[in-house]
Amino acid sequence: MSAREELIVKYAADLTEKCGVNPDMDLLTKVTIGCGPSIYNADSATVAGSQQSELDTVKNNFLIKKLGLSDGPELDAAIDAVIEKYGRSNRNKYRAVIYYLLAVHFKKESVYN
Fold first, then answer.
1. Which of the 8 DSSP states describes residue 51?
2. In this predicted model, what pLDDT tens digit does every residue of 57-74 receive, in sequence order?
3. What does the pLDDT average to over 22-41?
4. Would you state the pLDDT for residue 70?
5. Which Pfam families does the entry link to (predicted)?
6. Distances (CA, A) of 60 to 9, 27, 64, 109
7. DSSP letter at 64?
């Protein structure tokens, strides 16, 4: 099993166990690939849910640039809801899991087709 495949299995486990979501493995794989090499770096593979700069990066680089959404309070609200769903006390919030949940939240799965 490749390193990426091992990470995808780990992300799927987080979605199931911590978020109560039955992941679409095809979409999760595409989101993970879309994260690029950042998934292999311990710092960039996770999102610090309490750091505003991290949340701004998720909003600007993923929601606005990747998903093509317009900036507005609903983006911040969605990020907050996803962080809450993942569990604020959960120390490791994987970027691929956050992006997956946001893509599903905004019904933007088609971006990955």
1. -
2. 999 999 999 999 999 999
3. 97
4. 97
5. DUF2853
6. 27, 21, 5, 18
7. I
Q: In whole numbers, what is the pLDDT of the chain averaged over residues?
A: 96
Which among 58, 67, 63 is positioned nearest to 95, based on CA atoms?
A: 58
CA distance 111 to 41: 25
Q: Would you give the end-to-end CA distance of the chain in angstroms?
A: 24
Residues paired with residue 94 on neighbouring β-strands, in sequence order: 46
**Among candidates 74, 90, 110, which has minimal Cα distance to 19?**
90
Q: Which residue has the tokens 């978020």?
A: 19
For residue 70, what are its two tokens?
Answer: 């317009």
d(CA 102, CA 65): 13
Full set of structural domains in the chain with CATH: 3-112 (1.10.238.120)
The alpha-carbon radius of gyration of the chain (Å, integer) is: 13
Distance CA 43, CA 39 (A): 9
pTM above 0.90, yes or no: yes
Q: How many CB atoms lie within 10 A of CB 89?
A: 6
| pLDDT band at residue 10 under the 50/70/90 scheme | very high
